[in-house]
Write a structure and sequence with these properties.
The protein is α+β, with helices and mostly antiparallel strands. Helices cover 50% and strands 11% of the residues. It has a five-stranded mixed β-barrel with strand order 1-2-3-5-4.
Length: 441
């Protein structure tokens, strides 16, 4: 799938939530009782690099150290200094390179905190280093996913500091868990492993509920599953908008398009009130209520298949949820033959407008004096020959309705030619022809 571009700025070492462990430091000189595995020149050179405050100068210093002491036992500590320095310089491919080197050099049993810090930083910057057009893009993603999962394992195995309660320790680990899960989810999303991506983003949100980016990506992953997890996907996208994720206007547009495709209503404008309701509800809760649902195209098809114009009028007049569902189903539909009685007719320059009444029986229509349908006829000027009280059959597109006083609005209507008089008679000279028997419409 297309790479999603929204992302937060990568976090710098020392500015993260991982404040209870430190970047590994090289051992100091301990005197003659314990002989170090490195020379004094190596140690002094390393300390000089660590004391450097300018990132460019520190990189040069570290490069010089590697050139002079390529087999130094301090190399792991040198690599650990490269990571934050390149991060400060926003050279994210180099951050990943040295994080991977450090992890490969370190012992999971004795250096759990250092490995975790390296894996965490690698995960935080991966999205900024990733090149989707690179020949090894898939390999980049697989390594990123594995690094994030390894980071989560390291986080779980990290021993609790003595000065922290279990709850403090658990809370302090949440931001790191959120970042690592979000990084795994990003890689899985690009790899099109949508169920795994959804699970990772859910885990990220469990640790950081206000993460709008993860909420957006969760929605994308859920909607990309087969079959799509539509309602949960819509809710996640709406939550991202509520959390003001970067690009929230584009997220709203994407959400609207997905709801439109899911529902396939004949009137696109009906999507907006449903989306606005969704956005309002999602702003109040991270979890979708089990009873909340947006009708699908299959739901609307069931209504269409069992509806005729008379049942539609009954449902719309009844109001409530049934009226909403009925209108979603039939708005924009073409009806082949609607039977009614002309209440009045007006000829325009390019169209003819009729007010018509339809009812359940011929007797009801004969007795009607007010219209319940407004019918716009285009491209059929001869239909203006119809008169008040004439029976009429027409086809047209249902485009709107007024609840009170009740009125259906039709557009692009065509009158059955058999109902149009051959020529217009003088007023009072022609008797209106009878209203036909109502059909199923």
């Amino acid at each position: 799938m297309k790479r999603t571009c929204m992302a937060a700025a990568p976090l710098l070492l020392g500015a993260t939530a991982l404040l209870f462990w430190q970047v590994p430091q090289a051992p100091g000189q301990t005197g003659q009782a314990q002989q170090p595995s490195y020379t004094i020149p190596e140690y002094n050179a390393f300390q000089a690099c660590r004391a450097e405050t300018k990132p460019d100068a520190e990189v040069k210093c570290l490069d010089d150290f590697v050139a002079k002491f390529p087999k130094s036992t301090l190399m792991k500590y040198v690599d650990s200094l490269y990571i934050p320095t390149y991060n400060t310089l926003k050279n994210y491919p180099k951050v990943i390179e040295y994080a991977d080197k450090y992890v490969a050099e370190s012992d999971p049993q004795t250096d759990a905190a250092g490995r975790l810090q390296a894996l965490y930083t690698r995960s935080a910057v991966f999205e900024f280093a990733y090149n989707p057009k690179a020949p090894d893009a898939t390999d980049q993603l697989t390594k990123a996913k594995n690094a994030a999962l390894d980071g989560l394992k390291a986080l779980d195995s990290l021993p609790k500091p003595e000065n922290m309660t279990p709850q403090q320790f658990a809370d302090n680990k949440k931001p790191a868990a959120a970042q690592l899960n979000a990084s795994a989810g990003f890689a899985e999303l690009q790899l099109k492993d949508y169920p795994a991506a959804a699970a990772s983003f859910k885990a990220a949100l469990a640790n950081k509920p206000d993460d709008g980016i993860s909420s957006y990506r969760l929605g994308v992953a859920l909607l990309a599953e087969n079959p799509p997890q539509s309602m949960d996907g819509f809710w996640a996208l709406a939550r991202a908008v509520a959390l003001k994720a970067p690009g929230d206007a584009q997220i709203k547009d994407y959400l609207r398009k997905r709801i439109t495709a899911y529902q396939q209503s004949g009137c696109d404008q009906l999507v907006d009130p449903q989306m606005n309701e969704l956005l309002q509800l999602a702003a109040t809760s991270a979890d979708r209520p089990a009873t909340y649902k947006i009708p699908s195209s299959a739901d609307l098809d069931k209504i269409r298949q069992s509806s005729n114009i008379l049942s539609v009028i009954t449902d719309l007049k009844g109001g409530g949820d049934k009226a909403k569902m009925s209108w979603l189903a039939i708005c924009g539909l073409d009806f082949p033959e609607v039977v009614g009685k002309v209440i009045d007719i007006t000829a325009g320059t390019d169209s003819v407008e009729m007010h018509v009444y339809t009812g359940a029986t011929s007797e009801e229509m004969e007795a009607a004096t007010t219209a319940n349908m407004d019918v716009k006829i285009v491209g059929q000027p001869e239909s203006s020959r119809l008169q008040k009280d004439d029976g009429v059959r027409f086809s047209g597109t249902l485009v709107g309705y007024d609840p009170d006083p009740f009125m259906l609005h039709w557009d692009k209507a065509k009158v059955n030619p058999e109902d149009i008089p051959a020529e217009k008679s003088e007023p009072g000279k022609r008797k209106p022809h009878k209203v036909g028997k109502p059909s199923g419409n």
